[in-house]
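Researcher: Going back to the complex we discussed earlier. I've cleaned up the inputs and rechecked each line, so this should be the final set. Can you rerun the prediction on the complete assembly and write out the structure?
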Amino acid sequence: MKHYMQTMASVLDGTHKGAVDLKYFDAKYVSVYRNNSVTAHIDVLWANYKSVARLVGDEYFTSICLEYIKKYPARRRNLVGYGEHFFQLIDDNIERHNLPYLSSFAKLDHAWTLAHIAQDTAALQMSVLENIIQQGGDLENFKMSITPDVFLVCNDWPVFSLWAALRDDEDIRGAVSLTEQAENALVWRHGHNVMYRALNAAEFAFLNTIKHGGNLGLATVKALEVEPATDIGQVLGGMVAAELFTIEKSTDGDADA
Amino acid sequence: MTKLPNMAGMGLKPEFYREALEFPLDHSGQNMWYEVHPENCMVDGGPRLAWLEAIADKFPLSLHGVGASLGGLDPFDKTHLKSLRMLIEQFNPAQVSEHATWSSFDGTYFADLLPLPRTQAAQDHMVERIDEFQTAIGRRILIENPTNYMATNSDQSHVEMDEPEFLVEIAKRAGCGLLLDVNNVYISSVNVGIDASAYIHALPPGLIGEIHIAGFDEDPMHGKKLLIDAHSSPVSEPVWDLLDTALTHIGPVPVLLERDGNIPAFSELLQEHSRAQSALDLLVATGAAE
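Model: Rerun complete. Updated structure for the full complex:
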């Protein structure tokens, strides 16, 4: 039984050397199992890296997937979220595809997937902060966390608007022309929908401070350091309305590789 | 836990969550039930679980696993078992099923349902594994017959019995039931030349708790000689005929319409669902069961 499975497994993972020793089966159709397995993985990678697939086209995307499947075979018994190292593989192949910005798209796609399946948590409501103010409490030392569906994505290339267009199935015409420049984006879930928007430097500093355990006072200081004219009330109000914070214990999102 | 109704049900897909939820129930409250792959719901939160919760509140639900690797040699994945147990606790499905196949070896998960050798040793192994699995999840399961793509070669050391004999003995000894996928039987009849009707009649009716119907694709290279269990097209006429054969032999049991690719409009799927229900209704009306 072990030899039987070992033989099939070597066909499936492509590690079998030379002609397949198929004493068990008619060799003509053995590739069906490999095709089924590969197709299942590629379908999931396509769904999880939709913008990358649309950007590079089916043929090249399939070639990246095949390499990925070989290098990072699935170890869990389901493919939900499969492809967590995809942007690394893309970066490893920059010389081949000559698209240095491609992994930035992959990071945003991955954040989308993680936000979609993240834990549900009760969001902090503005009334909580208003009550603290009304009772003369200390808002500066108030601590909150980002909700598990919030992901800050730091990229070296300004791809966000193009990524959002691809994600929204808009038609992209013409060649992509980008100049290397750092850009931060926020991906999160609001209700059943995954949302996304670019973050300015102050917003990023504010949110990143909260994410790393800083209190509201420290987040305000960090935001004002990068942009003194920032209206902190507006930033905080917008983020609370978007339900980015919780006062429940939660796991930090971490797509900002 | 309620029993799945002996009615036609449908595989639940994100493409039609809303329509599925809004499907009108009749006075019996059992004219629709849904089946999901639990692996797609092994997430921490979000819309998948929220929709499933709403749908499971209104309709009977079946969990049909694809990732356990029941026949595999690797130990069961503890995280997978724990997630499955949690889904069972949360949604209280009327039925839980898996496949009489393997899908993992040396820690790698292939995301495919691979056929087992049909030997006494493999049978003993499956009985032990199903016992362990049923104990771990606290439920009796049904196991589904596999699709066959490759005829056995001259070396028959891995084939000591035919598939019905292999599965029936496992089910009897392990205390599980059978899920008869008539599309798989039809595909195997084309691909490896089994007699589909004889296959179905070799299964004791009392062991079968559910029937699956689905569509297949022709292999791009080999055409009609090699059919692929793709679930990407409507149910074919020969499979509808086999459904009638199976229902006549077994009697009324839950019948599930599977569709996993090229998902059409919900209304289109409902037409196939209605045809399956009509087959069940006719069976009851005429008392045609053997």
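Model: Worth noting: The longest strand of chain B covers residues 108-114.
Researcher: Good, that matches what I expected from the previous run.
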